[in-house]
Amino acid sequence: MRYAVLSDIHSNLEALEAVLAAAAQAHVQQYLCLGDIIGYGADPVPCLKRMRELPATMIAGNHDWACIGKVEMSWFTRYARTALEWTRERLSFGDLAFLRTLRAKHEDKLFTLVHGTLRAPEKFDYLIEIAQALETALMAKTPLCFVGHTHLPVVIEVDHHQGQVRRVLNDAEQLQHVALDLQQAKYVINPGSVGQPRDGDPRASFAILDTDGPWLEMHRVSYDVATTQRKMRDAGLPPMLADRLAVGH
Ligand code: ZN
Q1: How far does residue 41's CA lie from ligand 1's centre (Å)?
Q2: From ligand 1's centre to the CA of 161, what distance in Å?
Q3: For residue 160, what pLDDT band results from cuts at 50, 70 and 90?
Q4: Whose CA, among 159, 163, 186, 189, lies 20 to 30 Å from 246?
Q5: What is the extent of the structural domain holding 153?
Q6: Alpha carbon 195 to chain centroid distance?
Q7: Could you give the maximum distance between any two Cα atoms of the chain, in Å?
Q8: CA atoms 231, 235, 236, 242: torsion sign
Q9: C-alpha pair distances (Å), 209 with each of 146, 156, 163
Q10: Is the pTM of this model over 0.70?
């Protein structure tokens, strides 16, 4: 089975369409979404619609839950809060009902999905330290644990017999193709962000998992950033949120 793993779409329809086209070209059969479909960008409703059309397993991010009152707005930066208030006014009752179906964690046979960390899925902590990755890997009941939230692509390989981190892969070349050792190792994997990359590369980021390989590949896809920025400015969203898309920060 071949999966596309998407996270942090953040209402960026141009980036989402580019990623879905690349995934289709790579013969992806199923989709995994790690949360934050909405927030920041100008196309929350089309992004929700597009994701709901896919054969996808999806969990909630902090922005998704903020729109239904499950995360405090005061938790967010001023810009994020402004965009969330703008977003909430545009959602239909159907959109809100869909967001209410999203859970903070999903567990399958092979993989676990969580937006932040497994220590406290509903708290949305940023998984930024090696120790947190090790803890999440060891807590997972599955060999693979996909996380989002930081918008930074990374693969952390853990030897689960020894309880030690074996490898941290976070540069583009290392992430192009990663052979997975599902017998001996566990993995914490962040596919980066579709709609608001923060690693200095403005292209949309996502991962492909092939369970027959088994392997994982990180992909970057160019999209029409100028159109996305124009829509955000026309919508009156904070200009800083549009500006940052050009530099991927
Ligand atoms: Zn996010």
Answers
A1: 11
A2: 32
A3: confident
A4: 189
A5: 2-246
A6: 9
A7: 54
A8: negative
A9: 11, 15, 24
A10: yes
Q: How far is the CA of 234 from the centre of ligand 1 (A)?
A: 22
The 8-class DSSP code of residue 36 comes to -
Q: How far is the CA of 86 from the centre of ligand 1 (A)?
A: 16
**Taking Cα atoms as reference points, which of 209, 197, 241, 233 lies closest to residue 18?**
197
Number of structural domains in the chain:
1
Q: What is the CA radius of gyration of the chain?
A: 17
Residues 6 or more apart whose CB falls under 8 angstroms from that of 113 comprise: 32, 34, 57, 59, 105, 106, 107, 145, 146
Element (H, E) at 233: helix 225-234
Tell me the helix, strand and coil percentages in the chain, rounded to 5. 35, 20, 40
Distance 148 CA to ligand 1 centre (A): 7
CATH number of the domain residue 74 falls in = 3.60.21.10
CB-based contact 247:38 (threshold 8 Å):
no
Provide CB contacts within 8 A for 120, sequence distance 6+.
none
Per-chain mean pLDDT for the chain? 97
Cα(205)–Cα(199) distance, integer angstroms: 10
